[in-house]
Amino acid sequence: MTYWMEKPHPIEEGVYRTQLILPVSLEQRRSQFEQTLLSAQRRIVRFAKRHGWENLTKESFFDCAEIFDAKRAFDHALAKTSGLVAPVEFPKTYSAALENRVLMAVSPELYAENYPEGIEKDSYEKLLAHEMAHRLHIRILNGNEDAMGPTWFFEGFAIYAADQFKKNLSKFDERETRRIITSSERQSYREYGRVFRYFARKVTVKELIEKAREKTFPKWLMDMTR
Q1: Which CA distances in Å does 15 have to 29, 157, 193, 201?
Q2: pTM attached to this predicted model
C-alpha cells in the first residue's frame, strides 16, 4: 500500500495532528479517532517526561494513521507496509502496529472482539500508545533495535509505558517469573506487564533498558528476587 504523507502538524510539545485514513464505515467517527490519537501521544509524552526522555518525543512517531474495519484488510496493509509478501495472516489478537511511520490499527470494536482480555479503561488509546512506546524505546537506544532485549522485556516496556493491564493483581511467583523471562515463546501480555512492573519496582527503568541487551540479563533479574 502506498501512502501520501502530509506533514504532521504540531498541537503541543510532542503531540501532532497527522493524516488519518478511515474506511467509509468509520468516517462519521473521524473526530473521535483524531482525539484518541492525540490522547495516545499525550500518554507517551507524560511517561517520557517522568523518566527524563521528553526530548525523544519532540519529533512525531508517525506521519499517518489508518484504522481498519476488517482484520483481513489490516493484515494486508501491514504486510505491504512492512515489505512482506502478501497474503499474510497475522494472529487474531494482533491489532495494531507502527511501521515505516504509519500507525495502523483495527477498529475499537474489532480489538474488543479479537482480544477481549485486553479491554479496560481507555484500552484503545492504550493500544495505540503501546505502538508508540516501541518507537520511544528504539529512540532511547539510539536506533539500535537489536538492543531492545527479549520479547517479554520490550513488550513489557510498551505495556508499562502505555499503562496497560495495571490491575493485574496476580502475586509474584518466582518459578513463573523465571519461566517467562527465559522463554523464547510468546506469552500472555498481562504476564509481561506484571513481570516488568515487578522489576521496575526494584531498579530504575533506565537501568533495566541498559541491562536488557546483555546475555546475563535473566540471571541479573532473578538475583534480585532472592
Answers
A1: 20, 21, 25, 29
A2: 0.94
